[in-house]
Amino acid sequence: MERMVGGNGLFYPILGFASCVTFIYLSFGDLMPNNEKEQKFGFVERNGTQFMLDGSAFYINGWNSYWLMDHAADEYTKPRVRAMLQAGAKMGLTVCRTWAFNDGAYNALQSSPGRFNEHVFKALDHVIAEARQHGVRLLLSLVNNLQAYGGKTQYVKWAWEEGIGLSASNDSFFFDPSIRSYFKTYIKTVLTRRNTITGIEYRNDPTIFAWELINEPRCMSDASGDTLQDWIEEMSAFVKSIDKNHLLTVGLEGFYGPKTPKSLTMNPEEWASRLGADFIRNSKISYIDFASVHIYPDHWFHGKA
Ligand SMILES: *[C@@H]1O[C@H](CO)[C@@H](O)[C@H](O)[C@H]1NC(C)=O
Ligand SMILES: *[C@@H]1O[C@H](CO)[C@@H](O)[C@H](O)[C@H]1NC(C)=O
Predict the structure, then answer these.
(1) DSSP line for 155-170
(2) Residue 48: CB within 6 Å of ligand 1?
(3) CA atoms of 52 and 191, how far apart (whole Å)
(4) Which chain regions cross the lipid bilayer (predicted)?
(5) What is the pLDDT of residue 168?
(6) Residue 236 burial (10 A CB sphere; 0-12, 13-18, 19+)
(7) Which of 106, 127, 197, 239 is the most buried (most CB within 10 A)?
(8) CA distances (Å), 243 to each of 11, 211, 212, in order?
(9) How far from 234 is each of 100, 110, 227, 241, CA to CA, in Å?
(10) How is residue 205 annotated by DSSP?
């Protein structure tokens, strides 16, 4: 279950299909001492299909710890954040994917549309400051397609409660203009947040490797993929209008959709083409810098071994 909630983030540039890097334990040599890394901490950029840092290729050995902000919000569990980042850095890992959202759930960052809990925001400040201390960059996800930590269901519920929701469908997160506007408010607040520990606005902080729009989006009510495509186009443009420093990805699982019929046989099974997501089409959007795939062979090929 935890794997479903966290999602296994595998990152590589859009066209770099050749190398699929999974949760890598390989140690890439000793890390420089922290103070040396402190001196140079640039933004990760992209040149074609290559990630770049300070003019050289940047390779990612990444992992998922979706819970960092949540644990940082609680004095009792807060030390786990440092311990996790320390352990990752020690293994030579360079990027950690984590949630920059918690909508309406316990320890919510956003308690209702546009209302933020400062204590939890400070917890996210702490996560970012700690990551930098350990020379680890963060891939920050902005909302969940699934229900854990609120997700799109919570946004739809809010709109419904305020009497402005057009539809009770959870997919109205993608098509309802009021809910799109909720989410844009969320994006803007997070991207322009000034970290209370470092004093740096999130959008100007090179500790952030990239933004991820949404964890594992699916819009099953529109299998053509048009609804999700339109949402990604609008939200990716919005992110880039506020923040031109950071890379951006969607957060896709990686299933092929109707626009690439020749690739449909590459999906685990036929159901994967009917989820309203469309890997190539979604990833080709000009504001999207790189793509991800999430792999769950235990679920997909259950009983087939
Ligand atoms: C980007 O890549 C191209 C092609 O590999 C190369 O010619 C160019 O110098 C690179 N630009 C930078 C800024 O590294
Ligand atoms: C939305 O999703 C939640 C959680 O999966 C579910 O309980 C609810 O029934 C869904 N709403 C609709 C209208 O399908």
Answers:
(1) HHHHHHHTT--S-SST
(2) yes
(3) 22
(4) 9-28
(5) 87
(6) buried
(7) 127
(8) 21, 10, 13
(9) 20, 21, 11, 11
(10) -
Q: Angle of helix 79-90 relative to helix 118-133, nearest 10 degrees?
A: 30
Judge whether 253 and 216 are in contact, CB under 8 Å.
yes
Hey, what amino acid is at 46?
Answer: R
pLDDT, mean of residues 230-257: 98
15: Cβ below 6 Å to ligand 2?
no
What integer is the mean pLDDT of 9-27? 35
**SS percent in the chain: helix, strand, coil, step 5:** 35, 15, 45
Does residue 301 surpass a pLDDT of 90? Answer: no
The atom number, within ligand 2, closest to the CA of 170 reads 1
Look at residues 127, 129, 140, 125 and name the one whose alpha carbon lies nearest to residue 44: 140
Say yes or no: CB of residue 47 within 6 Å of ligand 1. Answer: yes
Which domains does the chain possess?
2-30+39-252+285-300 (3.20.20.80)
Higher-scoring residue by pLDDT: 1, 217: 217
- pLDDT of 39: 53
Would the pLDDT of 37 be above 60? Answer: no
Q: Residue holding tokens 């140690």?
A: 27
Mutate which of 43, 44, 46, 47 for ligand 1? The one with the most ligand atoms within 8 Å of its CB, which is 47
